[in-house]
Specification:
- The chain is 69% helix and 3% strand.
- It has 17 helices and three strands.
- The model is unreliable at 16-50 and 52-97 (pLDDT under 50).
Length: 424
């Protein structure tokens, strides 16, 4: 797999980044220009564009987790935008952009994050309705993200940090976390296929409970009593919601829980991958997509490759018969299945990318609220668009479980703050 991943990366032109002149060298050869940036820009190599802003890519929570995000703004002096590496003077971001401008920017990021996530959930469910082959679908979505990342790297919109090179060692370092990412996404697609979107989101609310149990058992992480107490509403809400689900599917529940386990382990191992590769945030996620796409392709072909031709023809027919459209309500022809498939994959990648931008601008408490509200938004959107039934008891159970995840975030943040204060 290492050789395949390396070959694919190099075939896309993803070799070692071009050497950059040091700040001292550039100061000696060109007039200085004042450029404002942030530490996250340096770590992730994201240039200022309409799609990606360097100041908002999370370094500490690369998979959309609720971990605290360090947001220290700096001013650097350099001769070119390529040398954003030497912070010299701290300053208050609010004095530069203004509270009003920042609030609008954060609101925009959160809106796009929620919208893309909700649209992906709906597109994913509808795609599985006409193309019930989650292995092939999962590979397509991860592959689209890998191709998009490769394009961003090729255009130098996103650049790996200095010192990173695609080689066998880099692929081997990325492989374990990339495989966990594959398991998390493939099982999520399987759960979507077997149950409703709202039920999947309810079970996904149990991810913090899986994280606490796994990190306690295998990584010797100790948690406070407050953290353990927040497990009660999470587990209770998920259990009660599952029992009251009108179309309960044990397969959907089991796949969603397996996705929780893989996501928790992925987050637990991501810091080690960051240390070994130097990749963070958008770069780490993009590199995992490249390795994951290469690793998943043979599995998908073995599991469902023989059904591909007939399944594609059936899906095209079903799209036309059911008049499935990307933009519902418009008097247009049904969306071609291939386009629908590619757009779904792009939304999957971009909602993860946009979550980094939103989380990078927020304080820890705001992140907790944003993640909790996100699940509510997706559940409501799926009920409104897909018309899947949900009982009052099921809705109340989901609210309890989601509230539990919010309380867990607060308790975990307090524990981290207390540990940091004790260490000083």
């Amino acid at each position: 797999m290492a050789a395949m991943g390396l070959g694919a990366a190099r075939s896309l032109g993803l070799g070692a980044p071009r050497a950059r002149p040091s700040i001292r060298a550039t100061r000696a050869t060109a007039p200085a220009v004042s450029i404002r940036t942030r530490d996250a820009a340096t770590a992730n190599g994201v240039r200022e564009t309409r799609l990606f802003r360097p100041s908002v890519v999370s370094r500490e929570a690369p998979f959309g987790t609720t971990a605290a995000v360090t947001r220290r703004a700096t001013r650097v002096t350099t001769a070119g935008a390529a040398s954003l590496n030497a912070p010299t003077t701290s300053f208050d971001d609010s004095k530069v952009a203004g509270d009003g401008g920042k609030s609008l920017r954060v609101a925009w990021y959160i809106f796009v994050w929620y919208a893309l996530n909700a649209m992906f959930a709906i597109i994913n469910k509808r795609t599985l309705g006409v193309f019930p082959h989650f292995w092939l679908l999962s590979w397509t979505q991860i592959g689209v993200g890998a191709a998009f990342t490769a394009l961003m790297w090729r255009l130098r919109v996103i650049e790996p940090p200095d010192g990173f090179e695609w080689n066998r060692r880099a692929v081997l370092n990325l492989a374990p976390t990339s495989l966990l990412h594959l398991v998390a996404h493939c099982t999520a697609c399987a759960s979507y296929s077997l149950g409703s979107v709202s039920f999947f989101m309810l079970v996904k609310a149990a991810e913090p409970a899986c994280s606490v149990l796994l990190t306690s058992a295998f990584f010797k992480r100790r948690y406070s009593k407050a953290v353990w107490l927040t497990m009660l509403p999470i587990v209770g809400g998920v259990a009660l919601g599952s029992a009251s689900e009108l179309n309960f599917s044990f397969g959907s529940f089991a796949c969603a829980m397996l996705s929780n386990v893989a996501s928790a382990l992925r987050s637990a191992t991501s810091k080690d991958v960051q240390a070994r590769t130097g990749l963070r945030g958008a770069n780490l996620y993009g590199a995992m997509s490249v390795v994951g796409a290469v690793a998943l392709l043979p599995v998908a072909l073995v599991m469902e490759g023989g059904k591909m031709s007939g399944a594609y023809a059936t899906a095209k027919h079903q799209m036309a018969v059911n008049d499935v459209q990307l933009l519902a309500g418009l008097e247009t022809a049904a969306t071609p299945f291939l386009l629908y498939l590619l757009v779904g994959g792009l939304f999957f990648h971009l909602y993860n990318q946009t979550s980094y931008q939103a989380l990078g601008e927020l304080q820890p408490l705001d992140i907790s609220v944003a993640n909790a509200v996100k699940r509510v938004v997706i559940i409501l959107a799926s009920v409104a668009v897909l018309k899947n039934p949900i009982t009052p008891l099921g809705g109340a159970s989901a609210a309890v479980a989601i509230a539990g995840t919010f309380l867990y975030s607060l308790a975990a943040q307090k524990q981290s703050a207390d540990e940091a204060a004790a260490a000083e």
